[in-house]
């Protein structure tokens, strides 16, 4: 029995895992698949639910779901449970889902949805999705006891209808019970180029790949205008459904028929199976004003042979190497006039269970790598989310570099600290020492923030007497001054060596988020905390917003402790929680 994923989750939860042999015999206390019968066609996205019936104290679980990748494309997974720690992994023809609660918590009892799995239909043929194995874990006196079930739960998907096949419960996987041949149900359908369907804020267009795996799609101007006019969202979406074997996609979008001023103030999101790109409203409007013709977005999957200097020796299975291009009337745009474009790049390698060690790199023409900061892995979509200032070649991979030896002092902050260190946002006090429990000085924190938000202006000048030119902190503090992010402890002094408080940290982060146009909630409250009278007036709005956004949380004693000094671990965790890719 392979229990690697679940064992790791339970170790993280601080619980021992003792597996038991044999199968669960009752139909109650069982995990299975369910699917609502509905007509399906090529390009549809179907939802399959993993659910538990008659559960009896389920604390953790792992399920393995097999599917046919020539017929179905994995889109993503939604966790239906509150709290705990999930892991989603797609190996190409098997999806591994695992989850555990954390700490002393009662397990699930009764009927519950655990996951919703989304798959896109690629072929006009009957196909199967099978839950081939499940492991259920219950707590007994603080120790977890696992029970493996090899009974098959089988879903049949066809073009026209879909039905659940209950199976006969054999361990060998022959659980379909209906004798249907997987290959029946029609031949593979070719996807017509430039066929469109429009719903409010979304256009769906189909394209089939040529012999070299290339898809070219032209978006109808009137359909795009229709989608923009009917959108009640902040964006309009163009979804490109491509056929199996696609290696590159070119999407041509009209500019001259949209009025020239982006009057709807919408972002443009292009969704494909290779990557997704969101062009912000500022850039989308600028392109409409300045370019009379059309825009073309290119997304191409590269191999190691497309990059010089022995790049193949670096690449691992599941790594992604993507070339992104943006052209306006055939002219390549090398930057975005100060705007940033959100991009989602795939990663389906074996290291997705350690997402904080996944890194996005810019690949130069000579093959050297440069870290892209503030990338985050989305477990539900198996994609790295990041924002880019220019398009080029980008690489997603796992970084196994040894880091700091003292993070056991703040294990709760390890993922955030390691992620930010690997992305060159924070540094240790030495190569192998981070000192997570040490307090952060005002100068150190400003350097972290300016680096994290990429706001450094080396020409900026500081007015504070204790901010000395030539010191490591000078450019960061001067940059923050010019942007209005920081204030001094007096008109003449910044307080370089003074420790920063939690409320000072909140105010600085809040102002930096406003500078970058990053969305934070404004309708929250901190009334539940018992020390509200200790919050300074300048920090009330910042603490309220950041708490509502999940960036700053209270302490275990039920207090915010706004005047307490912040540790290096606390600062790293708070920076890691910032939603850098959610722009207004």
UniProtKB/TrEMBL annotation:
GO MF annotations in UniProt: carbohydrate binding
InterPro entries documented for this protein: CBM2/CBM3_carb-bd_dom_sf (IPR008965), Cell_Envelope_Struct_Comp (IPR051465), SLH_dom (IPR001119)
SLH domain mapped to chain residues: 400-459, 460-523, 526-584
One Pfam family here: SLH
Residues covered by region (Disordered): 152-214
Gene3D superfamilies documented for this protein: 2.60.40.680
SUPFAM superfamilies for the chain: Carbohydrate-binding domain
PANTHER family attached to this UniProt entry: OUTER MEMBRANE PROTEIN ALPHA-RELATED
Entry protein name: S-layer homology domain-containing protein
UniProt organism field: Paenibacillus roseopurpureus
């Amino acid at each position: 029995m392979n229990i690697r994923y679940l064992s790791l989750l339970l170790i993280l939860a601080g619980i021992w895992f003792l597996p038991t042999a044999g199968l669960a015999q009752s139909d109650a206390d069982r995990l299975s698949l369910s699917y609502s019968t509905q007509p399906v066609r090529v390009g549809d996205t179907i939802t399959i639910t993993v659910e538990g019936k008659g559960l009896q104290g389920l604390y953790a679980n792992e399920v393995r779901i097999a599917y046919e990748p020539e017929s179905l494309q994995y889109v993503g997974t939604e966790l239906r449970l509150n709290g705990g720690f999930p892991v989603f992994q797609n190996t190409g023809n098997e999806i591994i889902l695992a989850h555990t609660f954390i700490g002393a918590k009662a397990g699930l009892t009764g009927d519950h949805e655990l996951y919703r799995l989304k798959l896109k239909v690629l072929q006009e043929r009957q196909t199967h999705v099978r839950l081939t194995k499940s492991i259920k874990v219950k707590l007994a006196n603080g120790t977890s006891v696992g029970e493996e079930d090899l009974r098959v739960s089988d879903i049949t998907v066809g073009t026209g209808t879909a039905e659940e096949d209950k199976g006969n419960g054999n361990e060998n996987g022959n659980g379909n019970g209906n004798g249907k041949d997987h290959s029946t149900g029609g031949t593979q359908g070719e996807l017509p180029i430039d066929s469109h369907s429009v719903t409010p804020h979304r256009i769906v267009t189909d394209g089939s790949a040529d012999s070299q795996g290339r898809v070219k799609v032209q978006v109808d101007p009137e359909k795009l205008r229709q989608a923009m006019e009917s959108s009640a969202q902040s964006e309009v979406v163009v979804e490109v459904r491509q056929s199996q074997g696609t290696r590159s996609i070119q999407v041509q979008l009209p500019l001259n028929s949209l009025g020239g001023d982006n009057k709807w103030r919408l972002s443009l999101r292009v969704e494909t199976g290779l990557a997704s790109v969101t062009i912000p409203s500022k850039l989308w409007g600028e392109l409409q004003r300045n370019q009379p013709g059309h825009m073309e977005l290119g997304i191409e999957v590269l191999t190691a042979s497309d990059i010089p200097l022995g790049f193949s020796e670096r690449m691992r299975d599941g790594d992604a190497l993507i070339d992104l291009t943006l052209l306006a009337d055939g002219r390549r745009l090398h930057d975005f006039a100060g705007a940033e474009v959100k991009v989602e790049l795939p990663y389906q390698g074996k290291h997705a269970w350690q997402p904080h060690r996944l890194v996005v790199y810019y690949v130069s023409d000579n093959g050297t790598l440069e870290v892209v900061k503030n990338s985050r892995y989305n477990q539900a979509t198996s994609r790295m989310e990041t924002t880019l200032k220019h398009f080029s070649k980008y690489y997603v991979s796992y970084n196994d570099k040894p880091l700091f030896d003292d993070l056991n002092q703040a294990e709760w902050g390890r993922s955030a600290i390691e992620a930010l260190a690997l992305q060159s946002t924070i540094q240790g006090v030495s190569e192998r020492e981070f000192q997570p429990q040490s307090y952060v000085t005002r100068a150190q924190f400003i350097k972290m923030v300016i680096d994290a938000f990429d706001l450094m202006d080396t020409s900026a000048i500081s007015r504070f007497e204790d901010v000395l030119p030539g010191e490591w902190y000078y450019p960061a503090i001067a940059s923050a001054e010019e942007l209005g992010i920081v204030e001094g402890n007096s008109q003449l002094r910044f307080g370089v060596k003074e420790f920063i408080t939690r409320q000072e940290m909140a105010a600085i982060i809040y102002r930096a988020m406003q500078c970058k146009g990053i969305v934070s909630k404004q309708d929250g409250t901190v009334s539940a905390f018992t020390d509200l009278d200790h919050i300074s007036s300048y920090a009330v709005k910042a603490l309220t917003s950041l708490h509502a956004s999940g960036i700053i949380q209270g302490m275990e004693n039920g207090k915010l402790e706004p005047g307490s000094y912040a540790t290096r671990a606390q600062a790293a965790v708070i920076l890691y929680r910032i939603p850098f890719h959610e722009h207004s």
